[in-house]
Amino acid sequence: MENEPKSVIGRRGSYAKGVARRQEILDRAIEVFAERGADGTSLRRIAEAIGVSHATLLHYFDSREQLLVAVYEHAESLRQAPEDLEQSSVDVMVAAATENVGVPGMVQLYSTLVATAIEEPAGESKEFFTRRFERVRTDMAQRLRDEQAAGTVRDDIDAETLATMLIALSDGVQTQWLLDPSIDLRDTLSRATALIAAR
Amino acid sequence: MENEPKSVIGRRGSYAKGVARRQEILDRAIEVFAERGADGTSLRRIAEAIGVSHATLLHYFDSREQLLVAVYEHAESLRQAPEDLEQSSVDVMVAAATENVGVPGMVQLYSTLVATAIEEPAGESKEFFTRRFERVRTDMAQRLRDEQAAGTVRDDIDAETLATMLIALSDGVQTQWLLDPSIDLRDTLSRATALIAAR
What is the ipTM of this complex? Predict the structure, then answer.
């Protein structure tokens, strides 16, 4: 298992088996990152920490960045909460942020990968986070449009712009809280309800 | 300067000469980073790009992280605009953000260093950015307090919390804009004026 060769899928495994093995690696990687974060960790060190060979890891992931993006994506898919249609846009934002900061390694991974996305226009992170921000903005804007229609959210700013602002606020306050935990993350983010309330 | 090894001062240069040389290196480093950003660049490669020896660079900076923080700090000190007391808190935020994104390498350096600060609690970045956020929040809160007293900014949220929110908004929208330049950075940030206006 530790020295699984590149030919394994063709020779003694099925595609499904390869997918399962990849998931298993990601599950273990999530535990490692949740504890340690990712900065400065080579693919070789990550392989050691997960308990697979460097070659095995390279079989499933072309690069360290590709692995890190896959870890983040997998972790996020695992904790996708069932959507509560009763929640306000700000409630959704606050819930996601407080859940995030409960897993320090994953918040670190997020900030590292977003920085990589900004730094490396041709990388995996850039594509992943550009799409992710688009998706999160679209979902948030839809929720805000519904709230504007219901008269609870101000409509002097369009829903897309408000969505961009709320997501920015959430990311930015999480960053400041990580550097200064005396900031009340939940209270600060909750104040957005007053900011976007209909007049 | 605190970190300048004692040997050079006594042995082959004056303290003032060392300071001047360090500034010169930082000036050249800023040009390099403004063009290329910093990700994945070793201290050796940075030395090459600046045109000094690796040993010279190590003489002035203990680590790559220390150099990067010094570059960011130096770049920021160079473009400190004279304070305009007439500017509103949101004007100040919008001006700083639009100036930032005009130098892509520096925005990349900012996001990389903030990610490093979050990832490495014992590093130079953590100390620098924790203090920097404190200072920026304090300045912004003072401005907001004056505006609350003048009746132009809402006072149902305290000035410190509003400052945290505005700074978060600015950082977060810059990040989204870097990944999706179709976002109107200036317009989005300017909407904060309406959000924080007195009712």
Answer: 0.87
